[in-house]
Amino acid sequence: MDKFLITGGIPLHGTIRISGAKNSALPCMAAAILTEDEIVLENIPQVKDIDTERRLLASMGAEIDLSEPHLTRIRCATLTDPVARYEIVKTMRASSLVLGPLVARTGLARVAMPGGCAIGGRPIDLHLKGLEKMGATITQAHGYIEARAERLKGAHLVFDKITVTGTEDLLMAAVLAEGETLMENAAREPEVADLVALLVRMGAKIEGAGTSTIRVEGVESLHGARHRIIPDRIEAGTFLVAGAITGGDLIVADCAPAHLGAVIARLEEAGAKVEILSADPVHGEIRIRGNGSLRATDISTEEYPGFPTDMQAQYMALLTQAEGASQVQENIFENRFMHVQELVRMGANIRVEGRTATVHGAARLSAASVMCSDLRASASLVLGALVASGQSVLDRVYHMDRGYERIEEKLRGVGAKIERVRTAPDPAEESFSD
């Protein structure tokens, strides 16, 4: 169970480079199931969820080449075992992303049902309803979902609520379906558009990516392709907050500024100085300076392009240092305030009522021993520790490793005093993370 030791009170200065987006890489890796040819993915982040996905694909018969850093070659010439086994996917919620492509390619998919999650349930009923409308027969038994179809057929799919993984899963099912599929109330996240970009390179016919209405004309087969994963907008947002909360002067490089509009707007509203040095979608640069006087500001999480739920915990850490009272409304997940009590242990003044947290700042945070509960909660505690007086101890930082590549090394590179202490494995490392 690795720990972080963080000594706070040091403004961050320098440049941090952003890795590829985990939440884009996972569906793009799953898309390799759709063809016998090789898929080459560049800018793959080196995080634990990616390792889990590689093991999952390999267990199905995929050939995977990892000979180059941040590049993965996947060839699913023969899928000998179209099953997402529980023992592999139990620590990763994105396992349901293989359901659509498996049934589209092989006519059969068996996927272990997702269990509970630290930040709330993520039912896949919208995936299943969509596959049924496309002609699949769905059964559930012994903890697995099984989908069967000789060939899926295009359908008119209207999502009851916006779902990113549901949109991605059914997109991959639709590209090999017979006829046209029309998806309404689809997710607009950049990660969905990135998956579409890969699928189009593979020969899919898709219109409307980035909008709430997506039209797919099914094709007989797809071919190999090479694709670069987009920058991780949540990692970029986390480091932007790090620059602001420490009163530092950071350049966040290799990011996509266009994907960060809501986060940048709230940082500016809170008093941080943000300058877009380059708007390039692959190698963009943003400079952020904390002026030492942050202002209270309210946020409400929404689907893209609104303020992302994956940035709520990090922004709440920032609000502990802002003068006045701020309100944080969580509209996506029902249990995403698990970081609150740990921030309170560090001296934060936060009150939670239902899905609303009221943060009173500016609090003088002091070092404490705290426990990480999920990926983004862990990031918020790192941010809190960066401004707390003394040395904080963060337990169970394996959550960070699922979505942040070498975060301690990146932070040390801009002046943070952070050290990883390696200890014996913890059985709790099999808990879920987002």
What would you say about this model in short?
The protein has helices at residues 22-31, 48-59, 86-89, 99-106, 125-133, 164-174, 190-201, 233-245, 261-269, 312-319, 340-345, 375-387, 398-401, 407-412; strands spanning 3-7, 13-17, 38-42, 63-65, 71-75, 83-84, 108-112, 137-141, 144-148, 156-158, 180-184, 205-207, 213-217, 225-228, 249-255, 273-278, 284-289, 294-295, 299-300, 322-329, 349-353, 356-361, 369-371, 391-395, 417-421. With 434 residues, the protein is α/β, with parallel strands linked by helices.
Describe this entry's structure for a reader.
This protein is an alpha/beta fold. The chain is built from 14 helices and 25 strands. The strands form six sheets. Strands 18, 19, 20, 21 and 22 form a five-stranded mixed beta sheet that branches. It has a four-stranded mixed beta sheet with strand order 23-24-1-25. It has a four-stranded mixed beta sheet with strand order 2-15-17-16, with helices on one face. Helix 4 runs parallel beside helix 6 (164-174) and helix 10 packs parallel to helix 12. The longest helix is centred in the middle third of the chain and has 13 residues, at 233-245. It is elongated, with a radius of gyration of 21 Å. It starts with a strand and ends in a 13-residue tail after the last strand.
Which class best fits the helix and strand makeup? Answer: alpha/beta
Question: How many domains comprise the coordinates?
Answer: 2
Q: How many beta-strand runs? A: 25
- Rg, rounded, reads 21 Å
Average pLDDT metric:
93
Low-confidence stretches: none
Task: State the helicity in percent bands.
Answer: 25-40%
From the 3D structure, determine the CATH topology of the largest domain. UDP-n-acetylglucosamine1-carboxyvinyl-transferase, Chain
General form = elongated
Based on the structure given, which CATH architecture of the largest domain is correct?
Answer: Alpha-beta prism
Secondary structure tally, helices: 14
What would you call the quaternary organization?
single chain
